[in-house]
Amino acid sequence: MMPTTSSMSEPGLQKDILQRVRRVEIKARGLSQELFAGEYHSAFRGRGMAFSEVREYQMGDDIRDIDWNVTARLGSPYIKIFEEERELTVMLAIDMSASLNFGTREETKRELVAEIAATLAFSAIENNDKVGVLLFTDTVEKYIPPAKGKKHILYIIREILLFQPKARGTNLEVPLNYLSRIVKKRSTAFLISDFMSNGKADGYRHALKIASRKHDLISVVVRDKREESLPKMGLVRFEDPETGETQWVDTSSKSVRQAYEEGFTQAQEERRNAMKLYGIDYAEVATGEDFVRALLKIFSRR
């Protein structure tokens, strides 16, 4: 059994927390340099144009840029000069459901999620972007408004690693609807989850469609290789981490293992089809894999 919090000394607990945050920070900082040096900056250029200044009209200028108020005041034609809006808002919608605690490759899915989120966050602040976070299960657990700075990023990392959600299930409609309704400014939004949502992809397709229209939405699916197929281990009792329900499964049965694999493949195809339908960039990353490579593959297509 794992030791309870009460069995640890408070100084020892605090030290462990700081060490975990520091480990993720060091790794994420290094990986963000690789990501930033690659495609992040070019993939997420400013999405709009902001007014900068006016100057006198010159032959060849677009007459649609004429500032008629200044022209009337000064008696000669002046045009507006625009600059690209560089600052972006990056939103990280992060799954905190109980199924993320599973992992067989030296890390859990939740730890993988933390590393992905931290790397994206450090890349964003390198690019002078704001970062906000939405932690969700089958409800919105916590919202961290967009901000800049190392202190803000370290706070985000700590919350991702240590936050204890009230619920255990997953409902992907919840973060998608929240992004559509509450986050007013258009953002680059990363939905990071194992997509083990209540029901099939059809259940959140409408929310996916609406959110992808309002925001530049990117989906990152985290999984563990062991989830793809059942090992042959005889009669095994499985527990659903999100509902607590248990079921005995005869893993020695070829038909049972085949049905499980077909179910996994079908769910995977439903996800991919939903992303393709709404033009959403999409990546799958397994525990123990190089997730930066998967992210760079997304960015290179943008």
List keywords for this structure.
302 residues; alpha/beta; 6-stranded mixed beta sheet; two-stranded antiparallel ribbon; 10 strands; 41% helix
Structural summary, described in words:
By secondary structure, the chain is of the alpha/beta class. It has 8 helices and 10 strands. The chain has helices spanning 10-43, 68-74, 109-126, 150-162, 173-181, 205-214, 254-277, 291-300; strands spanning 48-56, 78-85, 89-95, 130-136, 140-147, 188-193, 216-223, 235-239, 246-250, 281-286. The strands form 3 sheets. Strands 5-4-3-6-7-10 form a 6-stranded mixed β-sheet, with helices on both faces. Strand 4 and strand 5 (140-147) form a beta hairpin. Helix 1 (10-43) packs across helix 3 and helix 1 packs across helix 4 (150-162). The longest helix has 34 residues, at 10-43. It is elongated. The N and C termini lie far apart (47 Å). Mean pLDDT is 83; it is low at 1-9 and 46-50.
